[in-house]
Amino acid sequence: MRNKTGLFDIVNIILMLGLIAVTLYPFWYMISVSLSGELSVMQGKVNFWPVDFTLGWYKTVFNDPRIGIGYRNTIMYAAVGTAIALMATSMGAFALSQKRMIFRKGIMLAIVFTILFGGGMIPSFLVVKELGILNTMWAMVLPGAVGTFNLLVFRTFFEGLPEELYDSGRIDGLNDIGLFFRIVMPLSKAVYAAIGLFSAVGIWNNFYSAIIYLRNPDLFPLTMILRDLIIKGTLDAEMAVQSTVGGDLVTTDALKFATIMATTLPILFLYPFLQKYFVKGVMLGSVKG
């Protein structure tokens, strides 16, 4: 039995290491290409480590004056949007977790229905336009503030809290709002951290809403500005005279990889600070005890 267990552990470790390698290698390859010299990239010498190390591609990205505007807007959208999403979703989930709420099942069915069917792009655009938030910051944070999956995770977690906590709070004179802010929220830090990370990453990478709802360049998030840089770099590469066949394509890919790193790395730094809450929050909110 011990031999079988040991063999299983060895095979499991090998498979997990292979999975990690397959997952991380594309990311590492992009970093290597984005830090390599132009000639080395054009000649295809870059495989695992940077060749002819340079920060030229990142200088091309960060020398654009719009990058600062993009970071400012994206950080603002992520901060405000995550705060709104957490409050709206958790308060709605708390109400739906109370069995004494009237029309509770009907409202839940209507919410779950949205997982299968949605209004689509044109109805969403018309709603945003009629609300008067088109081409404003609120168009980036309000339409997707309440996610069905996030609401279900919150509700499942709240339903798992002991009823005695609510009874003791009511004895102390707390109403539902007091119960939520003084009892439920302090006990839900893990779920808030997990859902907050989901929301922040979603808003940080939100490209779809910016294309549809924004027209003012001063409101563009980082993803829109980096898209323009990639398009400009592609056009410049196509117009440039290249001595190597296909060199323009590889050079453009290096610029693309640099823009991907500039977009991805800042949000990745959040994970180490939330890791201790992340797994616990998802498990507690996903499995009803």
Characterization of the model:
The chain is mostly helical and 289 residues long. The chain has two domains: 1-63; 65-286, MetI-like (MetI-like fold), CATH 1.10.3720. Helices cover 74% and strands 0% of the residues. It is built from 15 helices and no strands. The chain has helices at 2-34, 38-42, 56-62, 66-97, 104-116, 121-130, 138-141, 148-159, 163-171, 176-184, 189-204, 208-213, 222-239, 247-268, 270-286. Helix 4 (66-97) packs antiparallel against helix 13 and helix 11 crosses helix 15 (270-286).
Task: Produce a short descriptive summary.
It is built from 15 helices and no strands. It has helices at 2-34, 38-42, 56-62, 66-97, 104-116, 121-130, 138-141, 148-159, 163-171, 176-184, 189-204, 208-213, 222-239, 247-268, 270-286. It folds into two domains: 1-63; 65-286, MetI-like (MetI-like fold, Orthogonal Bundle).
